[in-house]
Fold this protein.
Amino acid sequence: MAKANQPALTPPKGECRQCWYHAYASREAHKHLAPRQDCPECVDHMLHGHGNMIVGG
C-alpha cells in the first residue's frame, strides 16, 4: 500500500490539513472512489468548511 508523501502530511502553517492532504495525496485519499466519483469528505468540507478548495484530477 502506498503512503502519502511527507509534504502531503505536513501542510505549511496556516493551511488546512484536510485540504492539503486531499490535494497533495489525492490518489491515496481518493483510492476508495470510482472513476469521476466526487469525494464525500471533500464535498462536505467545501460546503461546511472551505469553499475555495481546489482539487486536482
Summary: The longest helix spans residues 40-48.
